[in-house]
Amino acid sequence: MKDRGLGRLFRPTYRDKKTGKKKRSRVLWIELWHHGNPVRFSSRTTNPKQAERVRKQRLAELVTGQFLGSAAERLTFEQLATTLLDDYRINGRKSIRRAEAAIKRLGEGFALSRAVEITADRVSGTSRPGSRPRRSRRPFRRSWRRLTGCLRWRFEPRS
Fold it and tell me: Which residues are CB-neighbours of 146 under 8 A, at least 6 positions away?
């Protein structure tokens, strides 16, 4: 039985740049509705069954509140750190040196990570390979709180 009102699979059309003819994409795309707005993204497959599996997975993320959207999924640690430091500079905060030191310390473990990959386990050091226990977690957690605050600031609705 087909799920109604839970998104759809489609093949978008486009104009061929050389001939000018309309063509259909071979790759299936998924359209879901999130907060009243359509969200479209590629399933990265031509197989309808695999695309349907991806659609159901994304729909489950929407229902559980884990769906962030493509912009948030592409956000990296470096972009978060840059945004935070820019905010400190613009607002003339006196603690910018402390923030730079915190970002440097966090960058040792998260330098090439996407923001969605940085989890509580990775912050606490349990899943970081080769991590050594620290004497005090307080400075590390403070650094983490600053960075997650920056993430919330970057994606909160603007009025």
Answer: 84, 99, 102
